[in-house]
Amino acid sequence: MPAEVVDGREIATAIRRDMRREVEVLTGTQGRPPGLAVILVGDDLASTTYVRNKGKACEEVGIKSVQIHLPATTSREELLDILHGLNKDETVDGILVQLPLPPHIEERSILEAVDPAKDVDGFHPSNLGGLLTGHPLFVASTPLGIMEVLDRFQVAIEGKDAVVVGWSTIVGKPIAFLLLERRASVTVCQQWTRDLDQHTRQAEILVVAAGKPGLVRGDMVKEGAVVIDVGINRVAGKLVGDVDFPSVYPKASLITPVPGGVGPLTVAMLLKNTLLSYKARGSLPRKP
Ligand code: GUN
Q1: Residue 185 lies inside a defined structural domain of this protein
Q2: Ligand 1 binding pocket mutation candidate from 39, 111, 170 (most atoms within 8 A of CB)
Q3: 120 CB near ligand 1 (under 6 Å)
Q4: Of 64, 118, 119, 121, which residue is the catalytic one?
Q5: Whole-model pTM above 0.85?
Q6: CA distance to 14, 15, 16, 278, 285, per residue, from 8 (Å)
Q7: How many domains is the chain partitioned into structurally?
Q8: 220-270, pLDDT tens digit by residue?
Q9: Which one, of 173, 157, 256, lies nearest residue 216 by Cα?
């Protein structure tokens, strides 16, 4: 039987609708809305679109979004100064530095400068380390979006064979740990893994986040597998994932399309993290 296709846009809309009500009530009692600061350095086209979408989503749920657009020539020190200011700003609950940064700014030192308690992207080493111990303050939004799909569609995880293709710090590594935490047996592969198809064919849950269009074809997928495609690739002007949808769809039991699958959920999870931070921070300014 062909797969059930996840409508990420519909789920994200439902999440935002629920959040909007909660944010409205909290804003009334706390005297200020949750705040998310998004920093964009330079004019990368994809990043500009992502940042705009994040701003729109914030507006829709009543989160105050502060977008800081800096020129590509911004120095590391200037960026650090801005981050230190945002770390201290009590009206800012979440800070996100859109990646990639221009090549002259070392990414690691910037991500480490974000207060871990405002690190709604979950990229700070203390939050990534928290994933290993099972107690992160924040988990990156894309892996959270994947878990949201698995849970909404009541995919049993405990005892399952899960295969993750791709080992990025943003998706592959965190989702591997989240699945381990839920007692799956997890194999992490890369696009270079020898006999990749032998691994993927074992997967009852297959997460593909390798950034290579068409990497996973139907003959590489177990009958009835849950297939989560996290790839976002532009091929001949069209957005495609890492999974060859036409050949995988007939074999899978559940599949996320690209676009419209995990992508919209990523933004919804960022909003959730911001709300979580707002609720967790003890020193919320009160209404006068
Ligand atoms: N660039 C691509 N994906 C992401 C993301 O999830 N967060 C940030 N900050 N930058 C990105």
Answers
A1: yes
A2: 170
A3: no
A4: 121
A5: yes
A6: 10, 10, 12, 25, 35
A7: 2
A8: 999 999 999 999 999 999 999 999 999 999 999 999 999 999 999 999 999
A9: 256
